[in-house]
Amino acid sequence: MPTLRIALAQVNPTVGDLEGNARLIVEWTERAAEAGAGLVVFPEMMLTGYPVEDLALRASFVDASARMLRATAELLAVERLGGIAVVTGYLDRRAGLAPRVGLPAGAPLDAAAVLYGGEVQATSAKHHLPNYGVFDEYRYFVPGDQLPVFRMPADGGEVDVAVAICEDLWQDGGPVQVCAAAGAALLAVPNASPYERGKEHVRHELCARRAREAGAALAYANMVGGQDELVFDGGSLVVDAAGRLLARGPRFESGLVVADLDLPAADPARRPGQTPVDAGDGTTITVNRLALAPQEDPARWPSEPAARPPATGTGPEPLGDLAEVYSALVLGTADYVRKNGFGSVILALSGGIDSALTTTIATDAVGPGHVHVVLMPSRYSSGHSVTDAEDLVKRQGVHARTVPIRSMVDAFESELEGLGGLAAENLQARIRGMVLMSLSNQEGHLVLTTGNKSEIATGYSTLYGDSAGGFAPIKDVLKTLVWDLARWRNAQAFERGETPPIPENSISKPPSAELAPGQLDTDSLPDYQTLDALLDDYVEKDMGAARLIAAGHDPDLVQRVIRLVDKAEYKRRQYPPGPKITQKNFGRDRRLPITSRWREPVS
Amino acid sequence: MPTLRIALAQVNPTVGDLEGNARLIVEWTERAAEAGAGLVVFPEMMLTGYPVEDLALRASFVDASARMLRATAELLAVERLGGIAVVTGYLDRRAGLAPRVGLPAGAPLDAAAVLYGGEVQATSAKHHLPNYGVFDEYRYFVPGDQLPVFRMPADGGEVDVAVAICEDLWQDGGPVQVCAAAGAALLAVPNASPYERGKEHVRHELCARRAREAGAALAYANMVGGQDELVFDGGSLVVDAAGRLLARGPRFESGLVVADLDLPAADPARRPGQTPVDAGDGTTITVNRLALAPQEDPARWPSEPAARPPATGTGPEPLGDLAEVYSALVLGTADYVRKNGFGSVILALSGGIDSALTTTIATDAVGPGHVHVVLMPSRYSSGHSVTDAEDLVKRQGVHARTVPIRSMVDAFESELEGLGGLAAENLQARIRGMVLMSLSNQEGHLVLTTGNKSEIATGYSTLYGDSAGGFAPIKDVLKTLVWDLARWRNAQAFERGETPPIPENSISKPPSAELAPGQLDTDSLPDYQTLDALLDDYVEKDMGAARLIAAGHDPDLVQRVIRLVDKAEYKRRQYPPGPKITQKNFGRDRRLPITSRWREPVS
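^ inputs. structure came back:
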């Protein structure tokens, strides 16, 4: 049985940076070569980044991707990497196809290519196009109808490798079924699969099941990095044809996964050529069989198994839930800052838990020297607000300044006589937002917004006030999870012998917006345990009122909270993006009209 | 040849207001009955409003729609309207169907029903699901595979009527082709087709062509009204089987279109039952043939042709381009205000053309007594700013007040020392935004935002400053069109013998943001004729840089403007909604990543 050493390059491309992404392919192919791999698999849409949204509809962009793919193949050969087979995702189009209504001429494809010997040996495209949740791929792509199966040299013989893409694993029929019919020994799968809590376990199960269905080992290469709302968490993995885990990549960081696969030798009776196969989903997929000729250019990498470094193995234990969520928030924030060209961030530090956690995430994402906090006490700020904020500044070593808002509030109130109630509360929040925006304009920092998901859900925030900013790190984090993450981060520091970054008092004191004397969140909202359980069922699970009540939520509360959530839609539309960590975030995932008279019937 | 009098009820439902929308069906069926019609056709998704976005995925909402449909059928009978055939759109689901990945159990349908004799006689669903531009229907619906053909009484015999829905006309194959095979005499088509400039002509051509293909008269009933970004413009029409226009409804207002159709008598050999037919698009559609039995309940409406009021006819001449755009802006604004429960609007009046036009739209939409303007002069405001604004207030009779911003600017500048350049300019705009928001919170007005499409495209606006607000009436209007609309509206007033609402000086003076001494827009931007032509090609037509240059745009300008547009994506994400009037608005239509390093290659 031949042995193939494969590598999964779990890397972090940037949307639109075709040159930089191509450079990543060359760099990481070199690393794979140095590790003695004969095949390296990159993520989906590696050359363009993912998702590119409507850039997929722009001819100049699609053509640049296809050109860059050919250039990359040539560059690999120039770098004497032509003898390693590279599977990578990219964006292409299929000239001559009658376009679907709404698609431009030359229908775009979520494509993959096999690069070898300085050439693009084969291309294919994603067959199953996800169009739910955060995905809109039916808007952008035509489905692929090819399964490339390439024969390549391994130690002790030749093996057949097939290529499928991401969603092709998640739906029944299609490439997995055709892979089985084609008798490929390995299914290489580029992915751009965004993080959600608990998804890693699901992915592993899925890969194991599809490997058994395909009767082939399966190499799942996932993207890593943040892109607007999405965080790709890596966790690439390799399973054998029985679904057993052979190797696993790190989470939330780049990494090379290396595995040695004992694979059945290719059947010489199966010759290069094209064969249509029933895909079991009402479509036909053409198996495009080809052979990669051995390259004359002497490989620089270790050709003898004994000379190779060890394979990766199944890696560290899976991260716990809180570690995973926290890592997603840090990576999402770090990449938003970096990929948008910012060198620093600024945010309001109130002494409360939301801004404390957001500052901690920012510090972990970009380093304390790049974090600027502003203390903006008002007449309603309690003593502990200031001392807790100052305590955090000392613990983390971030840049801090104080801008009292009193005189600005007075100037507004004297021009706008009689402002009271909500208007007076919002005024303070908006002045703080303006101070941050002014400092951002003056000094070039990205403004971070500190609102949590419970607030954003219920509209317990001020438009252009505390909601002002460019990125909202804890936007998808319910309040109870904010506390859990703060405690977890402090405990983690404690374990490492470091100073816990968050003052205990910020965690333990009752939450308050401090926009009116003695104000507490519980004046306006139910306690957060109760609220978050209800929000989880209403927002995440999309349960109607009657079902919520049947599930045990208090009927009055159901009516009241649902109304708050529904009414706040206009605020959410103007909220900055933030990293998605749940099954349904506010943003790409949950799309509701602003104008709506729908009231959930309670019975 | 039998004659059928049909009515198209071009009405304005509200998303989520199932009861109110059902009431509209009963009311307008009564009007149709009074006009002597035997059949009345309502718009697509009439019962729920359109688009309902993710409400389509919520079981409680879908079930409420299906229940309300049955209740409506019964209510019609109670109101002695059971003898008129009603075709209406609604939301349903198809229990038992294996759902597509991402769709909830009981796959939703963009459905239509035939109501008659107090019962739901037949249902069907849209076959072609648009998933481009502003449409995301593949996210929500499964395609319909039924074509109802109902036989109904007409004067002098019986006729067969088929039902298709909106997009079914826009794509080849499917219901139109099956309608031809089924030999129906009339194709009744509920629509929710949003306004775009010039689309009416396209619709008319389309209906004529599809009527000829179907070999049937075609009754196109369109929705009217605003829903967030979309404006449905009505313009319902009836063509005969040769494609000749027989009747046409008004634009941008509710109306009943009545036409008498001479139709071939139904073939008695075609019996009730179900027949699968090749739809010519790779699918099969089942013709569901049924007969509506004459109702015993005596109709209250005129049964004798001679006693009926005259039919509608082909209506007034089509609106000119500017009249059409202006009407869309007024209707979109009026409906956003009304359907969201606001009684009044507030906006900043600078003396410039954007706020002048926005005020005029607001006045036309909700009446001058419900429009509040705020003059907020700063140290950089010119003398004519104030006099032009005051002139407009006098012309339109809106509520006006002046809030000088000097003292608030001073308060900020003394707390934040050294604010200069952009930060100082933005500060003024943000203080104005805050004043509006404070007054909105205090007095309950909806804040209107006055930015135009040229500004929003290039980022020539201040986040949380002039971009603050709930609705942006001229968001999709390029600056040159702003001037054209202002001149058109003044000329229209002049023709009617009214006072032109917009001061001539606001139209003729050079545009300025007045955030710095002597500032003019042309300091930062090219002249608007040049800019708008370029924006039209880049934004609307999605041309890449090389194509833009080849089309004659100045290469330096192409690079500079494209960069401005690309960089401003984050601002647009936080911009309020406004009525779509072009082929591609900022919002649902044009969806680009914020994080993107893509730079259009200029060669």
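Chain B touches chain A through 95 residues (CB under 8 Å). The longest strand of chain B covers residues 85-94.
thumbs up if we can close this ticket
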